[in-house]
Design a protein that fits this description.
The complex is a heterodimer of chains A (441) and B (44). Chain A is mainly α. Chain A contains 16 helices and no strands. The chains are: A mainly alpha (441), B mainly alpha (44).
């Protein structure tokens, strides 16, 4: 039944994508985040929706008459540099080339999405459609899993769809955390009261879903995001009371398995799960130190012979002792920072951190610029909320291997569009109006 | 229940696409009108 519904719906989406390139960018992101293949069990599961949408998006762009020139700013330059650098590290990989190149192609697609988005998004409407696409993919999944968690009385264990970029519950928690500020933005731009209420419910369910993932990193990121909102809010007393009530209800109704899991945050140094992550981080440092320029290449640490080539358990034990984990086999980096360090060396990590820092700084600068040029209040708020989303990525990303994440690059693209398409466009209009008045005088 | 919500979500995506086309058309029409009125003013 689901297969039939999906097959009936897809032609409408294709028609819309062929009509407008900006819808192509939004649907490209929606397909990447929603992963339709994971929802169907029959014949519809074999179709490559991502490829179909991408081809349609490019066709739509080719027949678009109003193509603009691509202005390469500092952030875009850094992203393209990072892509080129990952190409070089893939050439000199110490891992299995077939695996490395397939990962590089995945990252190339993500970078292409960024470039496509900054090419075709031009107005606030376009940005809103992109953010709604995220709400109807990541946000929707958060609502669904949150509902299941409540309906099961906390027994449902939340996890992502198999074979998806967000299949791991920790990665899912990070995506939900990044989604929260964007849902707040959608409340701000929604005119209908029922829509605002629905989005408030979506935020509540996404928070429940974060809790339901049992992800400690996700919970810490949630506290950081909540703290940031609290600091920014004008009703600190009201929110403090609401938080106290929520904590009181939560502590009474949260399953003991959940509270036990969160309690391990205090005893991290003896927790086997945390020590396993430390082991992966140590391994990434060893790979980077041994391959000082290019690192190991994509997912090098997850290759058996690369893992066993280094004594991660016996290294850096003066920092955190992992000598008891000598028999533990290869595992993912479990941190966006160590993932990039192990994959692409210190230069790769520098470029990655520069992308994050520049994106965060640009979002603040663009918010100030929007204020100065008297832009709509929602644009200023969007820039501030994107900063919160980036903070969620940096905080939650410390414990998951999600450095090459479509949603992160899509959010960065929004900052570019606000600065170079919306603010610049309105300034051009103001300038032309001033010139017109001068002609009249 | 999950299937119903999922199908509704797909319908919402399609609605979003066509709503976006309608709103974009409005924006383009407004921009075209503004441009023409500016050109008229300059000509006068």
């Amino acid at each position: 039944m689901r297969d039939i519904v999906l097959i009936l719906i897809i032609p409408f989406i294709i028609y819309a994508v062929l009509n407008r390139p900006f819808i192509g960018a939004a649907m490209w992101l929606w397909v990447a985040m929603h992963f339709p293949n994971g929802w169907v069990y029959g014949f519809a599961g074999s179709l490559r929706y991502n490829l179909i949408i991408v081809i349609c998006a490019f066709l739509s762009y080719l027949r678009w008459k109003d193509k603009g020139k691509l202005k390469v700013d500092q952030l875009t330059f850094l992203i393209i540099s990072f892509l080129i650098w990952t190409f070089l590290t893939s050439l000199f990989t110490i891992s299995i080339p077939e695996i490395v190149w397939s990962e590089w192609i995945e990252f190339l697609k993500i970078t292409l999405l960024y470039v496509f988005a900054i090419l075709v998004l031009r107005t606030q409407l376009h940005i809103n459609v992109l953010i709604w696409a995220l709400a109807l993919s990541v946000g929707f999944y958060g609502c669904l899993e949150g509902l299941k968690y409540i309906a099961s009385g906390g027994a449902h264990r939340i996890a992502g769809l198999g074979s998806h970029v967000l299949s791991d519950r920790n990665e899912l928690a990070l995506a939900f955390n990044m989604m929260l500020p964007l849902l707040v933005y959608l409340i701000g731009i929604s005119k209908q009261k029922w829509m605002k209420v629905a989005l408030f419910c979506a935020i509540a369910l996404n928070i429940v879903a974060i809790v339901g993932t049992y992800s400690r990193g996700g919970f810490v990121a949630l506290i950081i995001v909540g703290g940031y909102f609290w600091l920014q809010s004008k009703r600190k007393v009201l929110y403090s009371v609401l938080i106290i009530i929520a904590l009181f209800i939560g502590s009474n109704y949260a399953p003991s398995s959940w509270t036990n899991r969160m309690d391990t945050l205090e005893t991290a140094k003896t927790d086997s799960s945390f020590l396993g992550r430390v082991l992966a981080w140590k391994h990434a440092v060893l790979v980077a130190n041994d391959n000082i320029i290019t690192g190991g290449g994509f997912r090098a640490g997850q290759t058996g012979y690369v893992w066993w080539s280094y004594d991660a358990a016996g290294s850096f034990n003066d920092v955190i002792d992992t000598s008891s984990l000598k028999a533990v086999g290869f595992k993912a980096a479990h941190s966006i920072y160590f993932q990039v360090l192990g994959d692409h060396g210190y230069i790769g990590l520098f470029l990655f951190l520069a992308i994050i820092f520049t994106a965060y700084r640009n979002a603040g600068r663009v918010a100030r610029l929007a204020k100065k040029t008297h832009q709509d209040e929602s644009i200023i708020r969007l820039c501030s909320l994107i900063r919160v989303s980036l903070i969620a990525f940096c905080a939650g990303g410390a414990g998951v291997s999600l450095a090459y994440f479509d949603m992160f690059y899509a959010i960065i693209a929004v900052i570019y569009v606000v600065e170079y398409k919306i603010i610049n466009r309105s300034e051009t209009h103001i300038l032309s109006n001033t010139n017109r008045r001068a002609v009249h005088v | 229940m999950e299937s119903v919500l999922w199908a509704l979500n797909l319908c919402a995506v399609v609605y979003l696409c066509f709503w976006a086309i309608k709103e974009d058309n409005k924006f383009l029409d407004k921009e075209k009108t503004d441009k023409e009125s500016r050109e008229d003013e300059v000509e006068q």
